[in-house]
């Protein structure tokens, strides 16, 4: 069933590995003086969480598309809303802290949310574009 979408998952994995490498390099080798000890959640844990959620969302959207193409957009909006609630509950301790020490962690969490939301949105657009069905093999 999901064999049909093998190419996008390979591309997704490549994008995620590239993003992680760039992100880790920026935090480690720049003037940000990154110290993993001050972060409540490690970068690896966040990438794992966000990646798993993205893969689950993509699998759900593929399943919905197979049943009814008309419901893919609304399903994406519903899943994104649920995902935002989950990410808020998980990251509440980061988001609600008001000190200058965790500003980098707040921006990091927000940037990762936006990047993964962009990946999911692009995939949803790709999924909705009926002409791409032949290219996805």
Write a structural description.
This protein is mainly α. It is 72% helix and 0% strand. The protein is built from four helices and no strands. Helix 2 (43-67) runs antiparallel to helix 3 (72-95) and helix 3 (72-95) packs antiparallel against helix 4 (103-128).
Indicate the structural class.
mainly alpha
> What is the mean pLDDT?
81
Number of strands: 0
Oligomer: single chain
Give the count of helical stretches.
4
Helix amount, in percent? over 70%
Shape descriptor reads: globular
Question: TL;DR of this structure?
Answer:
By secondary structure, the protein is an all-alpha fold. It has 4 helices and no strands.
Any key phrases for this structure?
4 helices, mainly alpha, 137 residues, globular
Write the layout of secondary structure elements.
Layout: H1 6-29, H2 43-67, H3 72-95, H4 103-128
Helix pairs in contact: 1-2, 2-3, 2-4, 3-4
